[in-house]
Task: structure prediction
Amino acid sequence: MKPVDCLENGVQGLTRRELLTWAGPGLFLLFGADWFGNDPLSAQEPARLPARQGYPTDINAYLKIGPDGRVTCFSGKVELGQGCMTVLAQILAEELDVAYASVDVVLGDTDLCPYDMGTFGSMNVRNFGPALRGAGAQAKAILLQMAAEQLQAPADRLQVKGGVVTDPSTPGKSVTYGQLVQGKRIERHIEGVAPKPVTAYTIVGKPAPRKDAIDKVTGKAHYAGDVLLPGLLHARLVRPPAHGAKLKDVDTTAAEKAGARVVREGDMVAVLHERPDLADRAFGLVKAQFELPQPTVDDKTIFGHLLKTAPPFQNAGASGDMAEGEKASSAIVEETYLNSYVAHAPMETHSATVSIENGEATVWAGTQAPFSLRQQIAQALGFTPQSVRVITSYVGGGFGGKSSAQQAVEAARLAKATGKPVQVVWNRAEEFFYDSFRPAAVVKIRAGLTPAGKLALWDSQVVGAGEREAKPYYDIPTQRTVSAGGWQGGNPAGMHPFAVGAWRAPSVNTNTFARESHMDILAAKAGVDPLEFRLNHLSDARMRRVLEAAAKQFGWKSAKAPSGRGVGIACGVYSNACVATVAEVAVNRVTGHVQVKRVVSAVDVGMVVNPDGARQQVEGSISMGLGYALTEEVHFKDGEVLDRNFDSYQIPRFSWMPKIEIILIDNPATPALGAGEPPIITMGAVIANAIHDAAGARVLQLPMTPARILEVLRKA
Amino acid sequence: MERTISFTLNGKPASVRVDDERMLLWVLRSDLGLTGTKFGCGEALCGACTVIVNQQAVRSCSTPVKDVAGKHVMTIEGLGQNGLHAIQAAFVKHHAFQCGYCTPGMILSAYALLLKTPKPTADQITRHMEDNLCRCGAQVRIVDAIRDASGAPQGGVE
Ligand code: FES
Ligand code: FES
Result:
């Protein structure tokens, strides 16, 4: 799906409804744009997307202080489970000097929250954080100025704690933020307020109780499919059996006879009923005929197909003279690494509920990008974006897969067609069918060693995965990396038989698997311990530090692989975050089964806003990483996705979990980078390297299923 | 067959006039408005829809409503009606969730385990919870939370 431009907002990023919303009681402040850096647009944008609006310059877009002193924080980010709600509350509480418990958070509501391009790429704290911090600092300065007038004391003498402003030289004299605001609309502006220095933090940098905890353990947390409205209809849509199949004929009479409503609009054929399961039952009576696509490609032939259909290679980094590198190399190691398509498979399938009243649409959607969705829905309905409100309540996992929200567009079209509120909740088969998979990829690496065991040459080609972090960060004098095709779209038609997209740390899982597997092969060739081999080629201090920290925690003992112990090491970079992982595995040589026993992960993700939150993200990354390393691959044939549920598509379970040890490197000098993605990138390679160390079997293809491991063992 | 099915729901009498072959999940969510019970797979493969029926954890997506006639059904809304249950409190304390979508099913599966085995080992917990899937990777914390909650009084509303 093409990204949609969102230029609909008026002055200062406020929509009509936002202005109306904030005309009521509350603090109304104006401030300058100086705090969020000089380029707010690019701060939010991956380089290749067309320019879109940045974060608003009005602090009222970010926060509101009620007469009771409670603070509401507004953000266009969404809570996918990553702890966004908690972290943003911490940041705002810190800057305002109010109690963390007094902050409420409203997320992903296009009427109430400032524009945001979406929740992905670990940009929550990295990009929205500074904007929120600036807004909080400005608001505090203005509140202090107001307090100074009220208490008749110079502002710089005042102290704030828990939203109460006191004058230390006049004990007993105080005023609260709530009293200062008094429900009045105040417009003030102070130039050049610097956010709090990191050294003064008391809330940020410490664990905090999750804001979403009570909702989530009591069943009160509402997801998009939990919205019940009077007259609500549940819809099931006719789906093609394979990508590329064309609807020829459809007979819905039996479904209608069974009491369901049927909507036909162009290619969309839907069966609707007040009960979701009865919609499903009636749907079973629909007879649809499709013209199947020509046989194309399947999960076995895909790799050759990718090589044939890929666009021309693009340069992804080069230095030195390749001929020199060849000359300096006394040994060359060349391998090809493969990875299959991988699904996001969040536990909540794509869900949406849409109600249209008086020409205004309200959309509850499980989405990572509510503002782009608003635009899409408006387009689909022929409405102005201002008459569409997207509300993102809790989202049951995203991992990149809920950046597009086709289900909400479907619900919106059906709501318009029926005049009733409509809910679309994809079943698990639809979730697999319409997922934008992590692309299958082929990575070829050719590397050369000098007689002294130093890397002299690195020549790599990435097809399918994308170029991110494909260029090695090791000290290699002569190197060249090229890449063709990727997850962002723009691939030639027919290259991938279905949609591909961002999957937790896009590109980088594949590229790290290939590079770090290759480094291990090279280390073995050089007869050097894999940790030592990496350190011999690393001058980057942060990367050295995570490697050394992980090795130390693990108790790494130098040995030449395969040592039979089943230990592996790998490191990587993701968006300037550094991660090193050590794993210990046991390989059953009879069944090919791998049990990962222990994982040590050291991460440098810059400043950590919430250490417990960061740990949760590392744990989640390790768990999800086990899946793509060991079992997860999408089976398909001629456009048909053969995996339809969790029986054939196996995701990690309780018994797979290793003992997990996490080291968060203390690095407050680097801005927060986010911990949700970096720790997953090494999981393929670290397990591949540990399997090799255990059994002497080098598996070059993800996932490393028992069958693939046995095959390598047989050949060894 | 359309008929009236009566059962005890979260400690209170409930009856619904429905096609008795319909799955309990949808009757709970749609007819009775109890949306805490989640749909994840529809084929008894994920555990998101777990509820307690007569002290046992069952998959409501694959349990026809006729099977609960005259029985005690407890959903996540019924647990800890007077303050958090020990398991819920332990999930809060350990942050044993991320997106929270699997959480009601996890908590109720754990509830059934602790009724049977008040002091489970980590191994017993793992075995019991094995078919409850969590894509966010909260498993390690869920095990910790269940261990923490074990031994505390386990009675809920039935
Ligand atoms: S929805 Fe019932 S087990 Fe998955
Ligand atoms: S917390 Fe998200 S699936 Fe378990």
In short: The pocket of FE2/S2 (inorganic) cluster (ligand 1) is lined by residues B 39-42, 44-49, 59, 61 (CB under 6 Å). Chain B has two domains: 2-78, 86-150.
